[in-house]
TrEMBL record:
GO cellular component labels: plasma membrane
UniProt xrefs under Pfam families: TauE (PF01925)
Protein name: Probable membrane transporter protein
Keywords: Cell membrane, Membrane, Transmembrane, Transmembrane helix, Transport
Family: Belongs to the 4-toluene sulfonate uptake permease (TSUP) (TC 2.A.102) family.
Length: 248
């Protein structure tokens, strides 16, 4: 039953990430519910979703453009530094502390997901020319650090950041979102592995399921109205947060 739950959660998570995001709302709770400690569950679930980010980045490779105020090299370096810092912070976070933080992180990520379109519109409307390079770098570093620590809602934060920096081409924004996600997740996974907090049998099994979900499940998900899919993900996030609060 544990195996079936993890495979199903990873498959659906891969499909959700390919279409709208929110896959970590399923992988983290599924691992915790099977008895995995929260910190290890967060790291293992992040490993499982890494191939999807890589595939997405490769798919948008021709459209990628760095946001105004940052070069491509700066984006790569900041993503790696921020992802490393977030992953290192996770390594030193006790399970008891992370267990208390998880429901709040889920609530915050769910809120960001629900308000994603408005957040991106606000960011675009607030952009008055390119941001100062130091402000752009600080924003990228902060979002990458969040992604290295907790993956939920990362895509929404990145799209909002790019809009705030003055980027307007959606394909370029999505390409950079996937590239930054892949980079910071890859370095975070390396740190998780070095710290010994990845359950590799579960991670590899879920990785295969998530990859299959990204290719096959997304075709089914695309047939659903966008609002139905979005609010279904929001409802999932709220339920998972409520369960974590209850388990405390």
């Amino acid at each position: 039953m544990d195996t079936a739950l993890l495979v199903a959660a990873a498959f659906v998570a891969g499909a959700l990430n390919a279409v709208a995001g929110g896959g970590s709302f399923l992988t983290l709770p599924a691992l915790v519910f099977t008895g995995v400690p929260p910190v290890v569950a967060n790291a293992t679930g992040t490993v499982a979703l890494l191939p999807g980010y890589m595939a997405g980045a490769w798919g948008f490779r021709e459209d990628m453009q760095p946001p105004p105020g940052l070069s491509m090299r700066a984006v790569v370096v900041l993503a790696l530094i921020g992802g490393s810092a977030g992953a290192a912070l996770l390594l030193i976070t006790p399970d008891a502390t992370f267990r208390k933080v998880v429901p709040w992180l889920l609530l915050a990520a769910t809120a960001m997901f629900a308000l994603g379109p408005r957040l991106r519109q606000w960011a675009g409307a607030s952009a008055h020319g390119p941001a100062a390079p130091w402000k752009a770098a600080l924003g990228m570093l902060a979002v990458a650090g969040y992604g290295g620590y907790f993956n939920g809602g990362l895509g929404i934060l990145l799209l909002a950041l790019f809009g705030l920096l003055g980027q307007t081409q959606l394909n370029a924004m999505n390409g950079m979102k996937n590239l930054v996600s892949a980079l910071l997740t890859a370095i975070a996974v390396a740190i998780y592995a070095a710290g010994g907090i990845v359950l590799w049998p579960q991670a590899l099994m879920m990785m295969v399921a998530a990859t299959a979900g990204g290719y096959g499940g997304a075709r089914v998900a695309r047939k659903l109205p966008a609002n139905v899919l979005r609010w279904g993900i929001v409802a999932t996030g709220l339920v998972m947060a409520a369960v974590f609060f209850w388990r405390q």
